[in-house]
Amino acid sequence: QGQLVESGGGSVQAGGSLRLSCAASGRTFSTDTMGWFRQAPGKEREFVASISWTFATTYADSVKGRFTISRDNAKETVYLQMSSLKPEDTAVYYCAARGRYSNAYGYWGQGSQVTVST
Description:
This protein is mostly beta strands and 118 residues long.
């Protein structure tokens, strides 16, 4: 059980910033690993970043130094701060949840479009 709802997507020029939010409900958020993934047109979905229940973070090489994932357990929300955006960051961004003892992300949001123009 559980629901994830993303918000904060939109259009921005290259070099700009956006912050995505993902609000969780119906889950034990504080012990979930939360992740962000993205899927560009014609491409497979790819990993962007994750944050564990211990606040350990992991990033794809393509976004290191530009994106920051964080979480607020009191608000049951995970964030993705995106800076220095590039046109190749254009994609639908999904948040996902993985239970503490699970090997896979079993809960997904509906996706939020991010478009970066030159």
